[in-house]
Amino acid sequence: MQAKIVLLPGDGIGPEVIGAAVEVLEALSRSSSGHEFSFTEHLIGGCSIDAHGTALTDEVITDCQAAQAVLLGAVGGPKWDNPLSKVRPEQGLLRLRKELGVFANLRPVKVHPALLSASPLKPEKLAGVDLIVVRELTGGLYFGKPKGRQRVNGNIRAVDTMEYQDYEIQRILEMAFRLARGRRKKVTSVDKANILETSRLWRQIAGEMQALYPEITLEHMLVDTAAMRLVSNPASFDILVTENMFGDILTDEASVLVGSMGLLPSASLGGDGPGLYEPIHGSAPDIAGKGIANPMGAILSAALMLRYSLGLENEALAVERAVEQMLADGCRTADLGGSLTTSQVTAEVIQRLEEIQEHIH
Prior knowledge:
Elements: E1 2-10, H1 14-31, E2 36-41, H2 46-52, H3 58-65, E3 69-74, H4 89-100, E4 104-110, H5 123-126, E5 130-136, E6 148-152, E7 155-159, H6 166-181, E8 186-191, H7 197-212, E9 217-222, H8 223-232, E10 239-242, H9 244-258, E11 267-269, E12 275-277, H10 296-308, H11 313-328, H12 342-360
Parallel strand pairs: 1-2, 1-3, 3-12, 5-10, 8-9, 8-10
Antiparallel strand pairs: 4-5, 4-11, 6-7, 11-12
Helix pairs in contact: 1-10, 1-12, 6-7, 8-9, 10-11, 11-12
């Protein structure tokens, strides 16, 4: 099998962690017969603004659409952090999601037993935490119209609009229910139905969807309650599905459970097009170039790519197992209280991956 993968390392630590993920994929290719990966690399975000005057070029979009998967680092940094600028790094990410048609962002959150002390929560709160947040990606407040500012009676008014169509809600909920089938058969649908009309539509459609999946338990939960429950009883969640902005906030909160944002991967999926895979952390410009970034989120995102876009479940499990063994053996980057560099941690993962692959074959 040969797979074309587009790399968009982006800004800050993006190139460092994506480089680590590529090393792991290449090691996997060497130890797995018949699996080859070809990589093409492009600019996105701030570095693309510097080079091309736009956060994402048409040529990059075309190449991404022709690939089987896209592996993304992070975008942004102080250099481009001007709220009034018409061209911003984040525009590249939003356009990429839209052009690829990815509407569901999956963020698995699983607490490793060896990292219970890395989280600010008490260890007993973290026992059994294994959840997936399914975030809607292409609708809601981030894409509503109109956007803009107006001067009214001497005051400046800014307007954003939260908008959802029924099919957008149906397809994200359907994905959540399908995922729950292979897990603990529970879906928590998060909304703000006591205030927002879009949330009332969301809740209505969730109820209709549950009738098609009678084996799945559905609970409705207001977003503020969900935020509280994520830190008070996170093990009670299995699949947590919600709209764009709520999901953006809740997934960052959920990263506290595992001890570091650097550990969490994500997969953005849609229809028949390529999936988009990225660690959930930002560009971390304060540590960029120091060689100390945690590459685990990027490496585990590559594992999700193997699973969802390439259909290589055994290989995905092998990468995940190598990461688990490395953590169990006490290998840590600085964000987890250790002293290993990005390249050292990557080498530790590759060593265990090769041992796992030898055992399999």
